[in-house]
């Protein structure tokens, strides 16, 4: 193939991807976006943030707060009081207002010694998806161990969160972006329809 032929074909491909309004062009764009995010952006973020999961989509309502902070606290204060966590302390915690199903959370790998009560962590559990809950207790016993609770839950969920060893911790929550996780949730739901 001549150099001019190659250049001509590359221009046609470029036009097809970026200018064509056909359904096929749209499908190719979606596939390219997926490949770029999955195999370039996500690994670079993971390397930069020192975690295998730099971004997670929230897939349950276990960290939601219904109503205002005061209304939510009224439903939870007895439980947190038993853990010696006051309302004033909780108001200093990161993500003190919880987050919702469909949000995405950016994570950073964290030295277990630096994880504190009130931090929101992601950890592996007895479910296929990692769990994102708030640390309510921490202790050392041949390594660091954590106990977590979803802000919305009235007690511990059945996700093996009462003794989380440091090896199970994937990362600590940095910040949330609302609603963007619904794309992943919808995509996974669509795939599950065909299983």
Secondary structure layout plus pairing:
Elements lengths: L2 H16 L4 H27 L5 E3 L11 H14 L4 H4 L13 E5 L11 E4 L7 E10 L3 E6 L14 E2 L3 E9 L4 H12 L2
Antiparallel strand pairs: 1-2, 2-7, 3-4, 3-7, 4-5, 5-6
Q: What is the name of the CATH topology of the largest domain? A: Umud Fragment, subunit A
Number of strands: 7
- Indicate the proportion of strand residues: 15-25%
Structural class by helix and strand composition: alpha+beta
Give the second-level CATH assignment, the architecture of the largest domain: Ribbon
Please describe the structure with a list of short key phrases separated by commas or semicolons.
195 residues; alpha+beta; Umud Fragment, subunit A; 2 domains; 7-stranded antiparallel beta sheet; 5 helices; elongated
Explain this structure to me?
The protein folds into two domains: 3-48, no CATH class; 50-193, Umud Fragment, subunit A (Ribbon). The protein has 195 residues and is an alpha+beta fold. Strand 3 and strand 4 (131-140) form a beta hairpin. The chain is elongated and about 75 Å long. The longest helix has 27 residues, at 23-49. The protein has five helices and seven strands; from the N terminus they run ααβααββββββα. It has a seven-stranded antiparallel sheet.
């Amino acid at each position: 193939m001549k150099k001019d032929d190659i250049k001509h074909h590359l221009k046609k491909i470029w036009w097809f991807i970026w200018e064509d309004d056909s359904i096929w062009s749209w499908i190719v764009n979606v596939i390219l976006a997926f490949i770029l995010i999955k195999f370039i952006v996500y690994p670079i973020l993971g390397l930069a943030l020192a975690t295998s999961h730099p971004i997670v989509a929230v897939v349950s309502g276990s960290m939601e707060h219904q109503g205002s902070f005061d209304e939510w606290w009224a439903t939870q204060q007895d439980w947190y009081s038993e853990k010696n966590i006051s309302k004033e302390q909780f108001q200093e915690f990161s993500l003190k207002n919880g987050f919702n199903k469909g949000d995405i959370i950016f994570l950073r790998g964290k030295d277990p010694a630096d994880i504190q009560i009130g931090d929101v962590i992601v950890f592996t559990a007895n479910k296929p998806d990692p769990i994102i809950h708030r640390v309510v207790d921490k202790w050392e016993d041949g390594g660091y161990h954590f106990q977590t609770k979803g802000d919305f839950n009235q007690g511990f969920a059945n996700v093996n969160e009462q003794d989380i060893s440091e090896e199970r911790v994937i990362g600590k929550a940095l910040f949330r972006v609302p609603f963007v996780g619904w794309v992943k949730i919808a995509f996974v739901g669509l795939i599950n329809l065909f299983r």
